Amino acid sequence: MSAKPFPDRMKAVVLDSYTGAQALRLEERPVPKPGQDQVLVKVAASPINPSDLSFIHGLYGFQKPLPVVPGMEGSGTVVAAGSGLMARYLQGKRVACVSQSRGDGVWAEYALIASNSVLPLDSSVSLEQGAMSVVNPLTAVALLTIAEQGGHKAIVNTAAAGALGQMINRLGLSQGIRVINIVRREAQVDLLKQQGATDVLNSSSSDFAQQLRDLCHQYRVRLAFDAISGPMTVQLLDAMPPHSRVTIYGGFSLEAAPVWPGQVIFEDKAVDGFWLSAWMGEHNLLQNLLIWRRAQKLLPTVLRSEIRARYPLEAAAKALADYQDTMTGGKVLLVPAAEDPPLE
Ligand SMILES: NC(=O)c1ccc[n+]([C@@H]2O[C@H](COP(=O)([O-])OP(=O)(O)OC[C@H]3O[C@@H](n4cnc5c(N)ncnc54)[C@H](OP(=O)(O)O)[C@@H]3O)[C@@H](O)[C@H]2O)c1
What we know:
The protein is an alpha/beta fold and about 350 residues long. The protein has helices at about 50-55, 85-90, 125-130, 135-150, 165-175, 185-195, 210-220, 230-240, 260-265, 275-280, 285-300, 315-325, and strands spanning about 10-15, 25-30, 40-45, 75-80, 95-100, 110-115, 120, 155, 180-185, 200, 225, 245-250, 270-275, 305-310, 330-335.
């Protein structure tokens, strides 16, 4: 009889209350068994994303019963499959995976994932890049698609020096859509300019509001993607001409975005939101697979993510502190087998 490809017990990071990193602990627990339409993934790596920070503070789009294993996305190898055609097809494959609104996430040695939330990786994509291949790359594709479908030749994006911001800038350049990047430090201006960005504004500059207004009017920008919300959303609405829209996709400021009645009534300005899960839900399986294939091809270039640090599961709280300390400059990965040879 051949040996089972995984042990009976595993290490997992567990969240006990929605109060942030202080509520995380390492636990040893049984390796779960895949049921109908589920696979068991031996996790190779998982990034800490802003959505993970929101989740552990109870601020994400859903809360799960506690205790729970956090971790929204990751990569690994399918080591066991439950019943179901798709699950069996995935057996043995290198995959990217995302956790669902129910059940445990991927900050563990093994993760149980619904087979429709698992995507096979191209052989050209490393497990580390694969771990960061869903949330940000697909959001970049989605936002540029929205811009393109709306006929926008120029857009604004905030928090532009982050991993997603860099992707949006590079994808915009490659699609001929002008991206006005907003960052908050001078070093971030240099970072984006080195990547070919044509327009980068520093929101800390004293004349930021005027510069933004000038560029928005010069390029007739009527669409802004905003990861900050609060006063930034107000500045974006103020800067753009009538019939403009701010699409909020993140809330770094943790503040509400007040809107002047006159702007929505007389100037036809609007604020709406974007959530990747909802956007993917508007597409059928084939469309989503085509989006995935396109993103995979771009992963080594315009949709790549830099990596700043790797931590084992035992150091999850330290990894979170490191990530929050410096968000620009690359993702912090949780790598369950950090002591093993580098990932392929
Ligand atoms: N809605 C969706 O479906 C969806 C999907 C994917 C991503 N997102 C959102 O996209 C955003 C970017 O994600 P990411 O993975 O690119 O993050 P990231 O790589 O960690 O980068 C975050 C960037 O935002 C900057 N930043 C942080 N707090 C800020 C603040 N209060 N004001 C201005 N800038 C701030 C950071 O600059 P410093 O280094 O100066 O801190 C950094 O450059 C997040 O809000 C995330 O939730 C949303």
